[in-house]
Amino acid sequence: MSRAAHNSLADDLLRPVLHSSRAFYITAAILGTIVLCGLSTWFYQIYYGIGVTGDNWPVFWGFHETNFVFWIGISHAGTLISAILRIVNATWRRPVTRCAEVITAFALMIGAMFPLIHLGRPWLAWWLIPYPSERGLWPNYRSPLVWDFFAINTYLLSSLLFLALPAIPDMALIRDRTKGWRRTLYGKLSLGWQGTPKQWHRLESAMHLMALAIIPIAVSVHTIVSFDFSMAVVPMWHSTIFGPYFVAGAIFSGIAALNIVMAVIRKLLHLEKYLQPVHFQNLGKLMLAMSLLWGYFVFNERLVTWYGNTTHEMTALWSTQMGRYSPLFWTMVFCNFILPFPLLTIKRLRSITSTVVASCGVVVGMWIERFLIIVPSLSYKSMPYSWGSYMPRWPEIVILASSFAAMGLLYLLFSKFIPIISIWEMKVGEHPEIQIAAQVQEAEAAGELT
Amino acid sequence: MPHHWGMAVDLDRCTGCEACVVACHAENNIATVGDSEAARGRAMHWIRVERYWEGEFPEVKVKFRPVFCQQCDNAPCEPVCPTYASAHSEEGLNAQIYNRCIGTRYCANACTYNVRFFNFYPPAWEKPLHLQLNPDVSVREGGVMEKCTFCVQRINAAEVAAGMQKRTLMDGEIQPACVQSCTANALVFGDLNDPESAVSKLAESPRGTKLLEELGTKPKVTYLLKESWHESRGA
To answer: How confident is the model at residue A448 (pLDDT cuts 50, 70, 90)?
Structure first.
């Protein structure tokens, strides 16, 4: 490929950063309004109390906690998938990795808001931070909520780092191609990147280390989120399968979110040349594998509970299979299994549109799955006298809607900040000899070839 | 040896009059949430009288079961609290420290007996109930969990008084509000570490059962019945 082709690639991918259309401003304004509605609803809830939600005795957790688990699940799209693809050196990953890593960063930020939103006294949330306080009291390290606090913060920090590191060469590119405030800003952000072999070498080893470290972190995060439930003696919660079940569901919903996001930015930012059907096909295969794994977990969970036939658990189980919550359960089975299966297996049906349709189903289905884990169990705890039910109220619905709008808005703004497809990784991908030359140079520098 | 407070409930004596519920509300400054909130399932009764029917109408037999915090020795509510608001006291009570509570509501979800109550809104009382608040009990803020304390303010006051007089507490000297108001003497409160106390003897009774004992929560409340649930089902 010639230098001109290189430049056109950089031009293509930098265009969204340097130029904004009217459609961008309109979309940003609409999304921003929804986010503002969500924020004001949250302040309304803080002012009047948790009573404005549908939470009650005995269902003390509802939509907010469902959103928490859902968004932390979505966050497994990025870093985990991108780390795995980097480690196995899947070359088709190049245009996908950053799209995915950005989802992780923002989904985590949104997900981590919900433990704050659901608190009765959110202004005291900082009591979870361990510091020598005037109260003479540490947080309770036996509480899964404290484990959550550490796990999510670790994951957030490492995934931000994982996103920022490979963005350095691209920020240096923007620095070199612009004037004025952008040059100053990106000059600072690119940390003096000159593209010397030594710098490339350091970046590569840092990314390799991060990719290795982030996989166990991601797995631990959703396992710990599952502990919020499985550690309590509540029917259908107290289960040993929850750790892997939650992680599988998280990756499943994460891939679905990634497919949707990729399809949207492909159209909005005119990236058809870079995000090709093959990417959707490969991610579709991954999603199909996760759908089967997820179905296997659900089958296991349900069969074992049914066969075990303990009175406490049977009530909660039947409420989802045949009872009050069964319409939701069977919708979930349709969305997560029956819908994606033919769309992703039958070759004639496979296309970008069908992958996106299947992905939308999975996102809806996985949200319902989180809801069905939390609410039916709390409705039917061990004492029949205190059985109850739950219906959401408008503040919860507005906050749920605004969490999706926040994802869209943050993503949109980010695409104006850093190219959403990694330019240097694309270049390396199109020029394998660059990589080899760089390796030779490195080896020479290390004195191995002399 | 520190005290280990426990209770016995004689189900054959309980008439279901709910005087205990009213007394508990008055003693512990429990908010009355109002009709619409109660209909949402947010009524706060630290003690409730559960009502069960046996048989078909008109041959119906009604049974009552007062349920309140079982003050578990292995309480599911305690380890899950991130701020130690739910903590075990030296005398075996599941203390709820309102000032530490940030309102995660995790304890209430973990509690198998559903005897924890959340202030969904700041507390309010129907007039003129707001004029009769007990000065010995703190009023809870909105967003805070609360629950039966075995009337810890009465326990503390009696312990202080006995300490001043340099004597040990007598059995039956402390009466939580529910026990005091029970006309049928169905509720007995006392020290389980004192083998001579009335409650210790009742706890050993062959008529005794404990709620959801099979979950390993080690509840400190014994329920007494002429025949155990097991026998009545087998017959």
So the answer is: low
Q: Round to whole Å and give the CA distance between B173 and B99.
A: 29
pLDDT at residue A447 greater than cutoff 70: no
Tens digit of pLDDT for each residue in B97-121? 999 999 999 999 999 999 999 999 9
Q: Angle CA(A79)–CA(A83)–CA(A88) in degrees, nearest 5?
A: 155
- How far apart, in Å, are the Cα atoms of B197 and each of B90, B171, B184, B226? 19, 6, 19, 21
The pairs formed by A437-444 with CB atoms below 8 angstroms and a separation of 24 or more are: A438/A197, A438/A200, A438/A201, A441/A197, A442/A197, A442/A200, A442/A201
- What is the mean predicted confidence (pLDDT) over A365-373? 96
Question: Measured between CB atoms, which of A50, A119, A124 is closest to B120?
Answer: A50
Instruction: Return the DSSP state at B47.
Output: S
Among chain B residues, the shortest Cα distance to A233 is held by B110
The strand pair at B5-10 and B221-224 is best described as parallel
Run of H or E residues at A49: none
Report CA-CA distances (Å) from B175 to A301, B148, B150, B180.
47, 14, 9, 6
In whole angstroms, give the CA distance from residue A268 to residue A262.
Answer: 10
Model's pTM, two decimal places?
Answer: 0.93
User: C-alpha A298: how far from its chain's center?
Assistant: 21
Dihedral of CA atoms B8, B11, B14, B16 in degrees, nearest 10, equals 120
Q: Could you count the other beta carbons within 10 Å of the beta carbon of residue B2?
A: 10
**pLDDT single digits (tens) B184-193:** 999 999 999 9
Question: Residue A246 to residues A24, A227, B192: CA-CA distances in angstroms?
Answer: 36, 10, 43
Instruction: Give the DSSP per-residue string, B155-209.
Output: HHHHHHHHHHTT-PPPTTS---HHHHH-TT--EEEEETT-TTSHHHHHHT-TTEE
Crossing angle between the packed helical segments A197-230 and A242-268, to the nearest 10 degrees: 130
List Cα–Cα distances, A180 to A139, A176, A283, A410, B9, in angstroms: 48, 11, 40, 25, 80
| B2 in reach of chain A (CB within 8 A) | no
Best mutation target among A64, A383, A393 (most B Cβ atoms within 10 Å) is A383
Taking CB atoms and an 8 Å cutoff, what residues of chain B touch A115?
Answer: 104
End-to-end CA distance of chain A: 31
Q: Is the pLDDT of residue A444 over 80?
A: no
List Cβ neighbours of A97 (8 Å cut-off, separation of 6 or more). Answer: A82, A85, A86, A166, A422, A425
Q: Residues of A with CB below 8 A from B52's CB?
A: 385
Residue A434 has pLDDT above 70, yes or no: no
Q: Do A75 and A159 form a contact (C-beta atoms < 8 A)?
A: yes
ipTM for the complex shown: 0.91
Q: How many CA atoms lie within 13 A of B74 on its CB side?
A: 9
Q: Smallest Cα–Cα separation from B202: which of B216, B191, B213?
A: B191
